[in-house]
Amino acid sequence: MSIALLSVAGVAMDALFGEPRRWHPLVGFGRLANALERRFNRPYSAAEDDTGRGWRSHGVTAWVLAVLPLTLAAWFLSLLPYVGWLVEIAALYLALGMQSLTEHAQPIIQALRDGDLAKARERVGYIVSRDTSALDEEGVALAATESVLENGSDAVFAALFWFVLLGAPGVVLYRLSNTLDAMWGYRNPRFERFGWAAARIDDVLNLIPARLVALTYAVLGDTRLALRCWWRQGFTWYSPNAGPVMAAGAGALGVALGRPAMYHGALRDRPPLGEGAPADADSIERSVRLVRRGVLLWLLILLLGGRLFA
């Protein structure tokens, strides 16, 4: 089966079934990652922000032990006769998060439209790391829109990119690396040294996909504004990959994102992203549609490319 058809099948499974409800492999992987972190980066005390004992070399070792055996297992299983194609589809399905993105965004949209700010704050807190308890309606919508645009790149497009490039082992390598970045890639006393490798590897793996996503957002929205925001604002962001993605996405939607936000009790100064109207429930909904349309565009290109080069 061609990589294009395998990609369509994986995306279709995600759209139909969403994430597994009872047990997701990434939950088990998270437990493994926590065990490795306790082994290689044991903090000096029980304080949550205490400095970890692990150095960069310990982080590299832990990353290798967590990611490479499972990547090799995915490669081996994908080569099995008769069932290898099923392994490929399952790997992509389990790595994608498009339906999950929609399911997390919809309650926020509904709460804002119902005027239930408390519920909107609660639900947006599920998908962002900033403090949400004091957000106003615009702040909730801004946080949710940013999250959809950024996570659309991380949890959807980048997974699809690495699947197309390297099949099951590629998407497993990417998804596990991205998960470790989310768990270890913090610039705080505990993870600054130990999590360095996880953060840098994730940056490298997202380097090309993030720019393809920014271009996709631009093509499907206000192209001129998206490209201008990408060029002028994308490189001012603290993340080399999230910046272009969110700047182009905000420009494509014609919405103003960015601005300072509270993280773990400290105000972080964040530059503006995009131009246009303030964020609201509609901007969240339009960001979800932008991601979904982008995926359809990628699949169409894959299918047409497969026919042209068949």
TrEMBL record:
Record flagged with keyword Membrane: yes
Pathway membership, UniProt: Cofactor biosynthesis; adenosylcobalamin biosynthesis
UniProt keyword annotations, A-Z: Cell membrane, Cobalamin biosynthesis, Membrane, Transmembrane, Transmembrane helix
GO MF assignments: ABC-type vitamin B12 transporter activity; threonine-phosphate decarboxylase activity
Membrane topology listed for this record: Multi-pass membrane protein
Places the protein is found: Cell membrane
Taxonomic superkingdom: Bacteria
Keyword rRNA-binding: no
CC terms in the record's Gene Ontology section: plasma membrane
GO biological process, one term: cobalamin biosynthetic process
Membrane spanning stretches: 60-77, 155-174, 290-309
Main location (coarse class): membrane
InterPro entries: Cobalamin_biosynth_CobD/CbiB (IPR004485)
Task of the protein: Converts cobyric acid to cobinamide by the addition of aminopropanol on the F carboxylic group.
Similarity comment: family membership: Belongs to the CobD/CbiB family.
Protein name listed in UniProt: Cobalamin biosynthesis protein CobD
Gene that encodes the chain: cobD
